[in-house]
Design brief:
207 residues; mainly alpha; zinc-finger; zinc ion binding
């Protein structure tokens, strides 16, 4: 009967609850995971899979689950439980799923960094081009710059006074340069309205 319990489609009774709680804890620890990954730096590339947060999550959730369900072999810590090959297989399966989830979060973060870097480089390149200024909001279209307004196909529309492409390019370049001297992350540009409902271009940094 003991073996049949693990061979059944549902597996051991605590399996799904433990798996769900581990996944939820890992998702809620996204900021902690990325912070730990940034601190690891280049060393993270050569680290063993799941070395950042998975083991910690599994141990914390096992402790809470064991405390909440005394009947779940409540006297045994996780290390002793690993002696049972069937229970070990269940834990390894959950661990692999958590590792894949952790790696997915890191890959998404790396892709976001690469995209920001590419967009920033494209924007900086455009600032040196004499005939065009790329819209800092959509990062795709060329801005239309006139003395009384700056607009873009993406919907950006800002009233200005005596604005020229050269002046706007200089303002953007100086702001980006000043930010890059203090922060490695790419700033974001949005259009915001002030007290008098006049649109303004706002540069902010998520970090």
């Amino acid at each position: 009967r003991h073996r049949a319990r693990y061979k059944s489609p549902g597996g051991p009774p605590w399996r799904e609850m433990y798996r769900r709680r581990c996944m939820e804890r890992l998702r809620s620890s996204r900021a902690k995971l990325l912070d730990r990954y940034r601190q690891a730096g280049d060393a993270a590339c050569g680290a063993a899979p799941g070395a950042l947060l998975v083991q910690e999550v599994m141990e914390q959730e096992w402790q809470e689950l064991r405390d909440g369900l005394p009947g779940l072999r409540g006297e045994q810590p996780m290390e002793q439980m690993l002696e049972d090959p069937d229970e070990l297989a269940v834990l390894e399966e959950i661990q692999q799923e958590l590792i894949l989830q952790e790696q997915s979060v890191i890959q998404e973060y790396e892709q976001s960094l690469r995209f920001d870097e590419e967009c920033l480089n494209a924007m900086l390149d455009s600032l040196h081009a004499p005939d065009r200024v790329i819209c800092p909001v959509c990062r795709k279209n060329n801005l239309t710059v006139k003395a009384h307004l700056v607009c873009c196909q993406c919907g950006l529309y800002i009233s200005t006074q005596d604005m020229t492409e050269g002046k706007l390019r200089s303002l953007l370049e100086s702001s980006l340069t000043e930010h890059s001297q203090r922060c490695l992350h790419s700033p974001e540009f949005t259009v915001t309205s002030g007290m008098e409902e006049e649109a303004s271009l706002l540069m902010s940094c998520p970090v």
